[in-house]
Write a structure and sequence with these properties.
By secondary structure, the chain is of the alpha+beta class. The chain contains 6 helices and 6 strands, in the order ββαααβαβαββα.
Length: 170
Amino acid sequence: MPDDITFVRIGKNLIGLRGLPEIFEELASRSWDSPQSGQEELFRRAAGANYIPSGSRDDYSRALWREFLRFKGDAVEAEGAAGLEIKVLGLGCSGCQEFCQQIVDILAARDIIADLQYITAPALLKDYEVRSFPALMINGRLVLAGQRPAMAQLEKILLDYAGPDRTPEP
């Protein structure tokens, strides 16, 4: 199974799971007696490739099914997260890694709540139709592509998206 990791929101956490695109591909063409039987098969396969705590079975099962429906193109309601949703798209090079670390440092220094994903898998990057890296997406909007602004400018961008209660201190 490939080393590609897909991040799935399970409760309040963003959990990395291996092999989901392949599992989704295999199951997308199948027809099910009921959605429940499809959900059970999806969970069984995902559990075969990942550690899933026994007490979290229902949460994982619901989250996997939601991601599977999204993969098939069905409209699903996302499980909301507090704060910003930030995605750094990169090629895994040192420049992209440094850019992502700068974002982490700003979020920590300003105590900004955010879900941060660093996406480097080529199969996932193509979904974003970005040609220049690193790229920064905030709440689903492409904010930067192919540039690494100064730390102060990057901080201003993040603070603007975080809201008025996070304005820079004088």
